Structures are given as structure tokens and as C-alpha cells.
Amino acid sequence: MRRVIAIVGILAMSIVCGYAQDKGENRPTMLIVTAHPDDWEFCMGGTAWLLKDKFNIHIAIASKGERGLSREPSNETAAIRVKEAECAAAKINGVLHWLGKIDGEIYADKDGVDKIIDLLNELKPSLIFILWPLDKPDHAAAGNMAHIALTKTGMIYDHEIYFMNAGLGATTTQFDPQIFVNTTAVWDKKRELIRCHACQNKDDGMLKTVEQNDRLYGRLNRTEFAEGFIPVFPFTSGRWDSNKKIKCTLLDL
Fold first, then answer.
1. In the chain, what percentage of residues exceed pLDDT 90?
2. What is the DSSP string of 101-114?
3. Are the CB atoms for 64 and 78 separated by under 8 Å?
4. Which residues contact 4 (CB under 8 A, 6 or more apart)?
5. CB atoms within 10 A of CB 40
6. How confident is the model at residue 54 (pLDDT cuts 50, 70, 90)?
7. Which is nearest to 32 in space by CA: 111, 81, 92?
8. Residue 230 CA to chain centroid, in angstroms?
């Protein structure tokens, strides 16, 4: 009888451990820093989908997209776009963090940098994505805030960090990807993420732009669809400490 109880106990513990693992408690953390709702979906929605079962994903968004439907900031617009952001985040089991900035008025200020530093210290992400700085002002500011925060914490030197672009030729300029992720298998999932943002995707206009961008990167890599990234530092066999070799998670997808 004791042996039966012990076996049952072991099985129960296995189930509990398996449940904890399924809930992502033992996974590493990934952080995406963006300016607006819909930025990460446009930049790296396919890659995020491929990573959603490997990482606990957190998304820091500088603003709530208050000017998405008008020249002046609108609380009504913000409420719509927050719901849309929640829709997309739920599909990758992502957790949203709002940095309290206003759409069209995002600056790389101390308040924003400090909020990202707090997130970095709390989450301790091993994989980080930030916006490319040669872009429209809000995107550039969000990218610079993240870059400053990563430098101040020292994570810039020994963490896996990538720049992403919000649409080559649309807003981003001079972005020459060094690493590509084949997202052909999850293109339908990326379409779902984009379509969460209905107020910005009238008549699938945003989706068409994303498709053009991803097909271009796909053609460059002999795939149908791809997303491109630039590591903050080039990958080398050793940098300051030969024992700290930064791997490339994206090439394992």
C-alpha cells in the first residue's frame, strides 16, 4: 500500500511539475520595447510567434497610440488601441507594460529610461528586441530609451539584443539586416496579429505593407516570408570575456 501511495505521489508531483512547465515558470524571459500598439506585430510578429513557447514574453509599449485616429490625443482612441494590443498579446501569451508616454510626444527622457531600467531589473530578460533608431521620432525615441537603459544596467554588453525595423521604406531607413528568421510557416499567425489592430488596418492596408516587407526579406533568403534583425553587437567567438559567448537564438528557429 505504501508503495502504491508513493507511486501515486510521484505521478502527482510529475503532473504538477509538468503543469508548472506548461505555464512557463521555467522558461527564460524575453522583452520587446516599442513605441505604439501594433509596432512589434509589424516588426517581428512571426518571430514572436515562433518564440512564444520557448520564452515568457513581455512587451513594453511607450504610448497607447492616442493619436492613431486623430491629430490630437484621444482617450477614446487609446482605449480602442489598448484592447487591440491586448488581443495581439494574448495570442503569444505576452504580458503588456505601458510606459505612460503620449503618441507623437515620445522622447528619450529620464522617466522613460528609468521605467525600462526597472523592467530590466525585475524581469531579467535574456533576449531583448528594440526599435532601430533611424526611424520616425516616436520609434527612434523608444529605441534610444531602451538603448540607454540597457547601457546603464550593463546588459548591453552581455545579453542577446536585436534591433528590429518598423517597415523598411515605410518609416525605417538604412536598415540592413544581418540575421533573418524564416516566418513562412507562421505567416497566417502574423496575419492574425496584424488584424487585431483593426483601427490601424483599414481595408488591410497595414497588412499589405507588412506582406511586401516580409516577402522582400523572404526573397533575399529563398523563403516566402522572413523577418530581419540586426544584433546590437556583431557576434564574435569572444569579446571582452571569452567565457561569455553570446549565442544567436534566432538561428535556432
1. 80
2. E-TT-----HHHHH
3. yes
4. none
5. 29
6. very high
7. 92
8. 14
pLDDT (tens digit, 9 = 90+) per residue, 10-32?
444 444 444 444 566 789 999 99
Secondary structure in 3-state letters for 69-98: CCCCCCHHHHHHHHHHHHHHHHHCCCEEEE
pLDDT at residue number 8: 42
* Cell digits of residue 201: 488596418
When the pLDDT of each residue in the chain is averaged and rounded to a whole number, the result is 90
Residue type, 184: T
Rounded to 10 deg, the angle between the 39-51 and 205-220 helix axes is 50
Calpha distance 139→143 (Å, rounded): 6
Nearest to 129 by CA among 216, 27, 26, 232: 232
Q: What are φ and ψ of residue 218, in 5° steps?
A: -65, -45
CATH architecture of 28-235+247-251: 3-Layer(aba) Sandwich (3.40)
Q: How far from 149 is each of 19, 30, 118, 121, 154, CA to CA, in Å?
A: 34, 16, 9, 10, 8
Cell reading at 136: 520616425
Q: Is 217 in contact with 173 (CB distance < 8 Å)?
A: no
